[in-house]
Design a protein that fits this description.
This protein is mostly helical. It has one helix at 2-36.
Protein backbone atom coordinates (compact mmCIF):
# COMPACT_ATOMS: atom_id res chain seq x y z
CA UNK A 1 0.00 0.00 0.00
CA UNK A 2 2.87 2.36 0.77
CA UNK A 3 4.41 1.68 -2.64
CA UNK A 4 1.14 2.67 -4.27
CA UNK A 5 1.07 5.90 -2.26
CA UNK A 6 4.58 6.72 -3.52
CA UNK A 7 4.19 5.64 -7.15
CA UNK A 8 1.01 7.56 -7.99
CA UNK A 9 2.40 11.07 -7.15
CA UNK A 10 5.68 10.15 -8.83
CA UNK A 11 3.86 9.08 -12.01
CA UNK A 12 1.76 12.26 -12.03
CA UNK A 13 4.78 14.53 -11.60
CA UNK A 14 6.68 12.73 -14.38
CA UNK A 15 3.64 13.13 -16.64
CA UNK A 16 3.47 16.89 -16.04
CA UNK A 17 7.24 17.20 -16.51
CA UNK A 18 7.08 15.27 -19.80
CA UNK A 19 4.27 17.51 -21.12
CA UNK A 20 6.23 20.67 -20.32
CA UNK A 21 9.51 19.36 -21.75
CA UNK A 22 7.86 18.05 -24.91
CA UNK A 23 6.24 21.44 -25.50
CA UNK A 24 9.59 23.20 -25.05
CA UNK A 25 11.39 20.83 -27.44
CA UNK A 26 8.56 21.22 -29.96
CA UNK A 27 9.06 24.99 -30.00
CA UNK A 28 12.60 24.37 -31.29
CA UNK A 29 11.03 22.58 -34.26
CA UNK A 30 9.23 25.81 -35.22
CA UNK A 31 12.46 27.79 -34.89
CA UNK A 32 14.30 25.26 -37.05
CA UNK A 33 11.55 25.40 -39.69
CA UNK A 34 11.81 29.21 -39.84
CA UNK A 35 15.60 29.14 -40.14
CA UNK A 36 15.69 26.50 -42.89
CA UNK A 37 12.86 27.92 -45.00
CA UNK A 38 13.77 29.63 -48.24
CA UNK A 39 13.43 33.40 -48.06
CA UNK A 40 11.29 34.81 -50.83
CA UNK A 41 11.68 38.37 -52.11
CA UNK A 42 8.95 40.07 -54.05
CA UNK A 43 9.45 42.91 -56.44
CA UNK A 44 6.60 45.33 -56.63
CA UNK A 45 5.87 47.46 -59.66
CA UNK A 46 4.07 50.71 -58.94
CA UNK A 47 0.65 51.04 -60.56
CA UNK A 48 0.39 47.34 -61.42
CA UNK A 49 -1.55 44.78 -59.43
CA UNK A 50 0.11 41.47 -58.79
CA UNK A 51 -1.30 38.14 -57.73
CA UNK A 52 1.40 36.27 -55.84
CA UNK A 53 1.60 33.45 -53.41
CA UNK A 54 1.03 34.27 -49.77
CA UNK A 55 3.15 33.63 -46.72
CA UNK A 56 1.15 32.37 -43.78
CA UNK A 57 2.38 31.27 -40.42
CA UNK A 58 0.75 28.19 -38.97
CA UNK A 59 -0.66 29.47 -35.68
CA UNK A 60 -2.87 26.45 -35.02
CA UNK A 61 -0.30 24.15 -33.47
CA UNK A 62 -2.10 21.96 -30.94
CA UNK A 63 1.09 21.09 -29.09
CA UNK A 64 2.07 24.73 -28.61
CA UNK A 65 -1.41 25.67 -27.36
CA UNK A 66 -1.63 22.82 -24.84
CA UNK A 67 -2.07 24.00 -21.25
CA UNK A 68 -2.95 22.49 -17.92
CA UNK A 69 -5.87 24.10 -16.18
CA UNK A 70 -8.09 23.58 -13.18
CA UNK A 71 -11.24 24.40 -15.13
CA UNK A 72 -14.27 22.30 -14.32
CA UNK A 73 -17.17 22.50 -16.69
CA UNK A 74 -20.21 24.15 -15.15
CA UNK A 75 -22.67 22.41 -17.44
CA UNK A 76 -23.99 19.20 -16.04
CA UNK A 77 -25.93 16.53 -17.83
CA UNK A 78 -29.42 16.52 -16.41
CA UNK A 79 -31.82 13.66 -16.41
CA UNK A 80 -35.53 14.03 -15.93
CA UNK A 81 -37.25 11.05 -14.45
CA UNK A 82 -40.81 10.62 -15.61
CA UNK A 83 -43.13 8.74 -13.32
CA UNK A 84 -45.10 6.19 -15.25
CA UNK A 85 -48.73 6.41 -14.25
CA UNK A 86 -51.04 3.52 -14.97
CA UNK A 87 -54.70 4.33 -14.73
CA UNK A 88 -56.70 1.57 -13.11
CA UNK A 89 -60.44 1.51 -12.82
CA UNK A 90 -62.00 0.04 -9.70
CA UNK A 91 -65.61 -1.11 -9.58
CA UNK A 92 -67.29 -0.46 -6.27
CA UNK A 93 -70.40 -2.41 -5.26
CA UNK A 94 -72.86 -1.19 -2.70
CA UNK A 95 -72.63 -3.52 0.23
CA UNK A 96 -74.74 -3.23 3.33
CA UNK A 97 -72.90 -4.26 6.41
CA UNK A 98 -74.73 -5.41 9.48
CA UNK A 99 -72.94 -4.89 12.67
CA UNK A 100 -74.11 -6.76 15.73
CA UNK A 101 -73.34 -5.16 18.99
CA UNK A 102 -74.11 -6.92 22.27
CA UNK A 103 -75.98 -4.57 24.62
CA UNK A 104 -76.43 -6.18 27.97
CA UNK A 105 -77.64 -9.67 28.87
CA UNK A 106 -79.49 -12.04 26.63
CA UNK A 107 -82.61 -13.75 28.12
CA UNK A 108 -83.14 -16.30 25.40
CA UNK A 109 -80.66 -18.78 26.75
CA UNK A 110 -80.01 -21.98 24.92
CA UNK A 111 -80.77 -24.69 27.37
CA UNK A 112 -83.05 -27.70 27.65
CA UNK A 113 -86.66 -26.89 28.33
CA UNK A 114 -87.62 -26.34 31.87
CA UNK A 115 -89.92 -29.03 33.29
CA UNK A 116 -92.32 -28.03 36.11
Amino acid sequence: MKKKNVLIPLFMSVTVLFAMLFQMLHSYEHVYKQLTSKHCEHTSIDGQKQITHSHTVDNNCQICHFTFSTFISSTFQTYSFLKATVETYSVFFYEKTISVVFKGSLFALRAPPFIR
